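Morning run. Coffee first, then this:
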Amino acid sequence: MAMNNTEFQEYLKKTLEEQKDIYIPVNSSFIEKIIVHNAKCTDIHPNPDDEFCYPDVGPSYRIMGEYERNIREKMNVNRIPVIEPLIVMKTHPKGYMLVNGHHRWGAAIKVGVKRMPVKVINMMLEEDIKNLLERSDHDKRVTLDLDEVVFRSPYDEFVEKTKGVIARKTQKRIRLGVPALFRYLKTHGYDIWVYSSNYYSIDTIQLMFRRYSVHVDGIICGNGKKGLYDSNKSSSINELIANKYKTTVHIDNDSIVITKGKESQFEEFEIRDADELWSKDLIQVFERIDNNDDQ
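And here it is:
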């Protein structure tokens, strides 16, 4: 049954109250990620940490209205509405939690759509990050942006040879020299953290790197206002990271920036971009850094 805005607001409030302290995000199996392509709208839980669910911010009914009109137009001519898949995580004890797509979900609920297409992903949860920090023996880490620094177009001149079905399917290519750089970093005591504002599944990223015999530690995807952590949790995690690592090195396309612990001072080195010697330049900089630290 269709809802108006007031009715949807009450539905959202009721849904959030029902899932509080009951439904928690968990990682799904590889098989489930492959076979699950749609889910009942009533089995999809809104993310309470998303601003969509904040009483003082709430949904944008203008955005939701645009999705509603598109859905109704298709339904009025007996066509199945084409809705971009919602990005979701599995929840315990049942159902899925929204990672991205709250307004599309809300529009479908308001119109009365029963099922919606979904893409199930796994993300690093708060406990995963805490366990990673506890297990690591290293006090140095490197951070990189996946889309800006690590991934390249299939047509780029300087890319690693494609390995495996996952790489071909995603149309992502690894920048030339990244595997060699990562192996150097791991053998010299660095944890490797990669970030992206896109919603990649962490197991997909792990598999892509594993095909080049490379291991990455932290994989933070979809970070930002739609992340799985509220501001208090984010502050707690950031403090744990700052206390864990004495040195953080951020790698960009044409430079690297080194910060020490919680200090605001930093050191910057320029490197060549779009060059087959990009990773070699980086390794030489790291050798100088490591030599200075040993002295």
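Confidence is low (pLDDT under 50) at residues 224-229. Good start to the day.
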